[in-house]
Amino acid sequence: MPTDIATSGLAHVWTQGDWVTRSVALVLLAMSLTTWIIILWKALDVRAHRAQARGIEGFWHSSDFTEALDKLGPAEGNPFRAAAIEGREAARHITHQDGVSRPQLHDSLDVSDWIERSLRKSVDDSTVRAQGGLSVLASVASTAPFVGLFGTVWGIYHALLGIGASGQVSIDQVAGPIGEALIMTALGLLVAIPAVLGYNALVRGNKAVLHQLNRFAHDLHAYLVTGARVSAGGDGKVLHMKRG
């Protein structure tokens, strides 16, 4: 293998590049590391939420609310347990079961509206947390190719300056520097593609979890207002459970 080819590539681009080329390479490296950290972090979150969602049916087959909460799993990062607690506390508060007897402004609200508002707030908070970091993935996916393209344009510009200064034009003098400059475009795509795929996969995963959370909140609302969960099959059956 010829020496000039063996020494070409990333190492040669780094050693022969100026501060702009090295800065572009470092920015792409930072983008790539950030992308993979977010993908792994959010994938673990989605996996945990799917496991927590499997506790929903156990929740409705519990004898009382305290046992039902235990079946939803640990409280940390658990949107289903957070919604259940938020709904229960809202029901206690609006019916003055929490020990607060003095009149408050929300006393004029309907019990159903107050509980729905509280559950909606809990679901919205969980939605915001689930979508955290996805905007960074979207930004990396849309900007990394342009960052790489900028590095390529900068490299070609300096390669052409070098060829012009030497006063000789041959295929080896043109192909080598321009080929190395194109590495930056390849790096930009190498950063952007995982970001795009990770973003789409996480959006799909979050959508499935949030669908289950919204359905659970709907059932919770029915239970906290009427004292029974309305059957999802629409056959008129209700599942009774003691309130905690």
Describe this structure in words.
With 244 residues, this protein is mainly α. The protein has one domain (7-97, 104-226). Helix content is 75%, strand content 2%. The chain has nine helices and two strands. A two-stranded antiparallel sheet has the order 1-2. Strand 1 and strand 2 (238-240) form a beta hairpin. Helix 3 packs parallel to helix 9. The radius of gyration is 29 Å and the shape is rod-shaped. The N and C termini lie far apart (76 Å). Pfam families: MotA_ExbB (PF01618). The accessory proteins ExbB and ExbD seem to form a complex with TonB. Belongs to the exbB/tolQ family. Its main location: membrane. Involved in the TonB-dependent energy-dependent transport of various receptor-bound substrates. Protects ExbD from proteolytic degradation and functionally stabilizes TonB.
Strand order within the widest sheet?
A: 1-2
Count the domains.
1
Shape: rod-shaped
| Helical content (DSSP H or I, runs of 4+) | over 70%
* Number of contiguous helices: 9
The SSE order reads HHHHHHHHHEE
Mean pLDDT: 83
- Low-pLDDT windows of residues: 232-238
Sketch the major β-sheet.
2 strands, antiparallel
Domain MotA/TolQ/ExbB proton channel: 107-213
Family: Belongs to the exbB/tolQ family.
Transmembrane segments: 24-44, 136-161, 181-202
GO cellular component, one term: plasma membrane
